[in-house]
Amino acid sequence: MKTDPPHILCINPWIHDFAAFDFWAKPLGLLSIAAILREKGLKVSFIDCLNRFHPEEPGRVKELWDGRGPFRKTGINLPEGLENTGRKFSRYGIKPRWFINDLKKIKTPDLVFVTSLMTYWATGVKETIKMVKSIYPGVPVILGGIYASLCFEHAKKDTQADLVVKGPGEHQLKKIIKDFTGFELDERGLSCLPGSQEDLDALPFPALDLQEKIAYAPVLTSRGCPFSCEYCASSYLEPTLRRRSPENVFKEIEHWHQNYHVKNFAFYDDALLVNAEKYAFVLFEKIIASKTDAWFHTPNALHIRAVSQQAADLMFRAGFKTIRLGLETCDFSTGRSHDVKVGENEFFKAVKNLKAAGFKKKQIGAYLLCGLPGQNLDEVESSMYFVRKAGVMPVLAYYTPIPHTKMWESAVKHSKFNLLEHPVFTNNTLFPCIGSKVDLKRISQLKNLKI
Q1: What domain range is 225 assigned to?
Q2: In a shared domain, residues 308 and 354
Q3: List of E strands, 300-409
Q4: N or C: which end of the chain has fewer CB within 10 A?
Q5: pTM of the model
Q6: How far apart are CA 193 and CA 381, in angstroms?
Q7: Contact in structure between 23 and 60 (CB atoms under 8 Å)
Q8: Residue 145 near residue 115 (C-beta atoms within 8 A)
């Protein structure tokens, strides 16, 4: 049995896509794993292929007031099967030469962990692992994350990963480290089994400090979601809703704000305001009482029914700047073809509460789904007018077909691509379930619709 703690290299891979932008997107799962390993005494290194602040980056890096910003991009060949789309495809992130140099600077690790986010970024994961293997030919590579979990068989077949991990990784760490390095990991704090109600407060804060710069901090107050939307895989990836205490979340916000001067925080939660009196309200009140000078954002959308006057007032006073509501459509009929999570009056009431609290129109956006299988685009356009009439911004959310969701079979049936062949065909900007050129043209018009 190996007694010296092994060296683990964690890598956030490149994005291959038609367009990409840093909308508060960080590999929170990988950085959480890194924090656990570091706490257990292992040496942990981190390379972010999406590092906007890489030391080799010439000139001033563009950074918006809220920490977001554009990734560096380099044109690459279109994936097989998309050559005739007439679109430009790019690698987003650092230059390959910079990545190679970064790999060579690090003492050869005992094990490499690579994460994965969007399923249709699979080719970026493949390229990243291929390059890692070329520099460290004898070092095992472990692939985890969303793509690895949702497209498990494809990831095993298409990447050079020595092991593909499905689902949350904490409870699998002990076995992985032992199998590949011979090191026996202390298993305290590693019992984060999917569906179990273990104490999430016992986990260390994600190792955001391994980054070149912390432009913003993602915060996850819970895991899982109580809803089972037809288009979303959240309940497959995390079957049970589990919560951190408001005290623990506040400590994390305070930690990044006071010790690393982080100003912007993005809540990754799917259910931030669920059971708010016991969780979110307590957190917001702590933030207000502490007079923390920080800004908060909700890119994953808030559940509209939960936006009470009290919720709106507390969010405004706590420093929330970006509010997104999960509306999906203005078809509120019980006979509609998709989930009914909110009524018309509930939406208007939520908007009224937010405005009464002090939020401005430009701060509030309502997500509307576009590109669903068999969707009538008249519904999308009328929803946009409805949202604008309510005095907030319509934000089109283009549908991505995702395996293991209720809508997946319908997407496969309606798609102009063979979605089962490769995840790249599920890219939402391809509108894979829109076959008509007339509808594609209309979506383009909807993007630019001045309402």
Answers
A1: 216-447
A2: yes
A3: 320-328, 364-370, 393-398
A4: N
A5: 0.94
A6: 43
A7: no
A8: yes
